[in-house]
Every structure is written in structure tokens, then in C-alpha cells.
Design goal:
The chain has helices at residues 56-59, 69-73, 82-85, 91-109, 121-133, 138-144, 200-208, 216-225, 231-240; strands at 9-20, 23-31, 42-43, 46-48, 62-63, 77-78, 149-150, 155-161, 170-178, 192-198, 244-246, 249-250, 258-259. By secondary structure, it is α/β, with parallel strands linked by helices.
């Protein structure tokens, strides 16, 4: 049997946040119990890079990565175990990963990050359905909506790499953005069964009580988000923060719990 560790697959996750009654909420999805990856867990929308995500047909419709923004969004520096596991990305793949982030957000949560004028709710619903059924590619979907993907409100937040031993490994870039005011988020009822806007402290409390399954990286992100009450402060923190690409150490053979070295706990 080949014991060579799987090479992590580039992936993107996005935390969508909004202010409510002086507090912050983040949108989370409950993955299907039949899912091959973190079944029944509450996660942020996201998924892996696909070949078509880097195609000129869709990357040519991306705005908001000019004037050094692309480099800023991919400024992470691998440390510790992640040095050996990090997957380098060419600029075209970086653009593709941002497309993957927007595509997965639309597929899983129904939120589309595009420039104004925003498509109407019925237009978005029809486009999402066609994309999910495979009747259209994401490039075709964006073209049919006469839209331009807008990444100007997206900020890089972190980068986590799945350690060896997991059946699926990802080199996952975490991004953060504000919820578009004109849109509504909802689970796709295919890969995910439930969507919820929730304050990070409440999510952590529910996880502590066993009411929500939240995996280690998600839990640490919620702990970070829980420190902020102002949307502006959170986004400014994201714009300025150091990003260390990290890979946690398994604490047991069953890969049910993990830890990070103390030197990275406040710096990832």
C-alpha cells in the first residue's frame, strides 16, 4: 500500500459577516451527514479549486484584484509543518482560487459577489439552479447575468493546510467579506442541509453544549471573530493582519482533535 501522503488540494473558504443590533453575525452551513468531508459539521461556505475556475472566460470577468490587491490577498507565509505541505500557486491559479471562492459561495449559500446593478432575486435563483444542475458553467452563468465579479470587499484572513493522514487534504485559504445588503443567504439543500446567521460566541456556546459540530479550524476562526463587535474593526484587522499558513498537529490517531504550537496560536 502506498503510504505517500496526499498532496493538499487548493481550496477557498469565505466567512460572510453582517452587523445586527450592534453585534456581528457570520453565515454558517451545516454539511450533509452523507458528505465525504466533515459530515454534519457547521462550516463556512467554500470548496476546492476546479480546472475551469482559472479559465480566461471567467477570470476576465473579475474586478477588485488590481494594483497589487492580488498579491495582498495571497500574502501568506508558510511556517512549521505547513512549509512542507504548502502548494504554490501561479497568479492565474490565484485568480482561479478567488473565482472558486465566489462560485462556491453562490452554489452553497446563494450569495453572488458582483458589481452593481445587482441581479434580481429571481435571476439569481434561476442562475443558481442552472449551475447546480450542470446546465451552465460558472463562466456562462456570470455572462448570462451580464455581471462582473467584484472582489473589492473581500479580504484575506488565514490559510490552513490539512495535516497528513486525513482522507482528503486541502490547502485552504480563508477569506472574509460583508454580506451584500440586496441579497439573502440560504443553504443549497444538496451539499448542505441548513444555513444560519449566528453570532460567533453563540456558535461556540452551542458547540460546547454538543448542539453544533464544529471542527478545529472553524472553532478557532469563530474564537477570533468573537473578539470583534464592529464590522469596520474586523475588516480593518483582516486588511492589516499577518497571515501565517499553518498545519495543525493531530492529538490522536483518530484525527478527532488537533493543536497548534503556542508560537503560532496568536499569529495564524
Amino acid at each position: 500500500m502506498d503510504s505517500t501522503p496526499l498532496v493538499p488540494r487548493p481550496a477557498a473558504t469565505i466567512m460572510v459577516v453582517r452587523p445586527r443590533d450592534g453585534r456581528l453575525q457570520v453565515f454558517m452551513l451545516r454539511r450533509s451527514a452523507a458528505s465525504a468531508f466533515v459530515p454534519d459539521a457547521y462550516v463556512f461556505p467554500g470548496g476546492a479549486l476546479e480546472a475551469l475556475d482559472s479559465d480566461d472566460a471567467i477570470t476576465g470577468r473579475v474586478a477588485g484584484v488590481e494594483n497589487g490587491r492580488l498579491e495582498h490577498l495571497f500574502r501568506s507565509v508558510p511556517v512549521g509543518n505547513a512549509v512542507a505541505y504548502a502548494v504554490p500557486l501561479a497568479p492565474a491559479q490565484q485568480r482561479g482560487l478567488l473565482v472558486a471562492c465566489v462560485r462556491e459561495l453562490f452554489e452553497e449559500a446563494g450569495v453572488l459577489l458582483v458589481r452593481s446593478p445587482q441581479p434580481s432575486a429571481p435571476e439569481l435563483a434561476r442562475a443558481r439552479g442552472a449551475l447546480q444542475r450542470g446546465d451552465a458553467t460558472f463562466a456562462q452563468t456570470i455572462a448570462q447575468l451580464h455581471a462582473t465579479i467584484d472582489l473589492s470587499s473581500v479580504e484575506a484572513y488565514s490559510r490552513w493546510i490539512t495535516p497528513p493522514g486525513e482522507p482528503r487534504r486541502f490547502d485552504a485559504y480563508f477569506f472574509i467579506t460583508t454580506m451584500p445588503a440586496e441579497q439573502a443567504a440560504a443553504a443549497d439543500l444538496v451539499e448542505t442541509t441548513h444555513g444560519v446567521w449566528i453570532e460567533p460566541p453563540a456558535a461556540l456556546e452551542r458547540a460546547q453544549r454538543g448542539e453544533m459540530r464544529i471542527v478545529y479550524p472553524t472553532r478557532l476562526h469563530l474564537q477570533r471573530l468573537a473578539r470583534f463587535h464592529s464590522l469596520e474593526a474586523l475588516l480593518e484587522h483582516a486588511r492589516r493582519k499577518e497571515i501565517l499558513a499553518v498545519s495543525p498537529d493531530p492529538l490522536d490517531a483518530a484525527l478527532t482533535d488537533f493543536s497548534l504550537p503556542d508560537e503560532y496560536m496568536e499569529r495564524w
